UniProtKB/TrEMBL annotation:
Domain Ig-like: 124-193
Pfam families, sorted: ig
Organism: Acropora cervicornis (Staghorn coral)
Name of this chain's protein: Ig-like domain-containing protein
Signal peptide: 1-29
Swiss-Prot/TrEMBL keywords: Signal
SMART domains: IG
Superkingdom per UniProt: Eukaryota
InterPro entries (UniProt xref): Ig-like_dom, Ig-like_dom_sf, Ig-like_fold, Ig_sub, Immunoglobulin_dom
Length: 304
C-alpha cells in the first residue's frame, strides 16, 4: 500500500509539472515577441517614458547585446549599446509596434537632442534642437535662449536665424530649436542653448547644453581653359634622379592642367591634383618625381 501511495505521489508531481509547463508555454505563445535596440537619429513616432533605473522586461531580447544581462536597467542597457556616450537611443519593438524610449526626467535639465558634433555642407540649412522638460515650460518665469560662441547677446529670429516657439515632441518634453539658414564658414563653432527661471530670488533650473557645428566646403577645382591650336603639347611624367635644370613650383593640392597627358597614367583621372598624380606614378612612395614637358621645354616640378 505504501508503494502504491509513493507511485501516486510521483504521478501527481509529474502531472503538476506538465500542467505548469503547458501554462507557461501558452503564456509565452500569447506574449508578443519583444526586442530592444539602439537607433540614433530619426525613430518611431510613438513613444514610451520609463524610469531609467527600472529593470528591462525579462522576455525582451537585446539586439547586438550578447554580453548584456537580462537584469539590467534601461539606463545600463542604453549605456552599453549606444555608439555615442550620453545619447539616448533605445527603441522597443513589441510585435509589429515600435516605440522610442525616453527616460523620465530626473531634474529640471535642458538636454541636447542628438549628437554634440553636427556636420553641415556650406550653403545648406541646419537645425539644432534642445529638449526642455514639460514641468519647466509650465513656469511663468522660464527663459530659453541660444548663444553663439562667447557672444553675450542671445541670438534672435531674423536674417540667418529662426527660433520657433517650443514644440511638443513627447508627452513630457518640448523641443527648443535653432534654424541656421545658408550656412557658411563663419557659422562654424559652438552653439549653446540656455534655460533660466527665477524663483524667490534663486535660479532653480539654470542649465545649458552645447553643440559644435562643423562646416565642410567642397574643394575648388582649378579652371583649365580649353586647348587651342597654338597651345603646345603637354605631358607629365615621372623621372627619379637627374632631371631638367629648369624648374616650376606648384601648389600640390591644385589640379593638373586638363590638356596635359600623363605618361604611363592610363588609370589616372584628368581632375587629379599634382600630389595625387605624383603618388600614383612614382615608383618610390614619398618621393617627388614629376617632370612637365611643353613642346621642347622640360621643367622639374617642385611642391610649394
Amino acid at each position: 500500500m505504501e508503494k502504491d501511495f509513493r507511485v501516486c505521489l510521483v504521478k501527481a508531481s509529474l502531472l503538476w509539472s506538465l500542467a505548469f509547463l503547458m501554462l507557461k508555454g501558452a503564456s509565452s505563445a500569447d506574449e508578443p515577441k519583444c526586442e530592444i535596440s539602439c537607433r540614433l537619429g530619426d525613430g518611431p513616432k510613438d513613444e514610451e517614458t520609463v524610469d531609467p533605473d527600472s529593470i528591462t522586461p525579462s522576455h525582451c531580447s537585446i539586439k547586438n547585446g550578447r554580453n548584456i544581462s537580462r537584469n539590467m536597467t534601461w539606463k545600463e542597457v542604453n549605456d552599453k549599446i549606444t555608439p555615442k556616450p550620453g545619447e539616448q537611443c533605445l527603441v522597443l519593438k513589441t510585435g509589429n509596434s515600435e516605440k522610442r524610449i525616453y527616460f523620465a526626467s530626473l531634474g529640471l535639465h535642458i538636454e541636447r537632442s542628438g549628437p554634440k558634433d553636427i556636420a553641415a555642407n556650406v550653403f545648406s540649412n541646419v537645425t539644432l534642437s534642445c529638449l526642455v522638460d514639460k514641468t519647466v515650460t509650465a513656469l511663468d518665469d522660464l527663459l530659453v535662449t541660444w548663444n553663439f560662441k562667447n557672444q553675450s547677446d542671445p541670438l534672435k529670429t531674423g536674417g540667418k536665424y529662426r527660433i520657433p516657439a517650443l514644440e511638443p515632441i513627447t508627452s513630457c518634453r518640448r523641443a527648443f530649436k535653432l534654424e541656421i539658414i545658408n550656412v557658411t564658414e563663419n557659422d562654424k563653432g559652438v552653439y549653446t542653448c540656455h534655460q533660466t527661471c527665477k524663483d524667490s530670488g534663486g535660479d532653480v533650473c539654470k542649465d545649458s547644453a552645447q553643440f559644435e557645428l562643423k562646416v565642410h566646403s567642397p574643394r575648388q577645382k582649378e579652371y583649365s581653359p580649353p586647348l587651342t591650336k597654338n597651345e603646345s603639347k603637354c605631358e607629365i611624367s615621372c623621372r627619379l634622379g637627374d632631371g631638367p635644370k629648369d624648374e616650376e613650383t606648384v601648389d600640390p593640392d591644385s589640379i593638373t592642367p586638363s590638356h596635359c597627358s600623363i605618361k604611363n597614367g592610363g588609370n589616372i583621372s584628368r581632375n587629379m591634383t599634382w600630389k595625387e598624380v605624383n603618388d600614383k606614378i612614382t615608383p618610390k612612395p614619398g618621393l617627388q618625381c614629376l617632370v612637365l614637358k611643353r613642346g621642347n621645354s622640360e621643367k622639374r616640378i617642385y611642391f610649394a
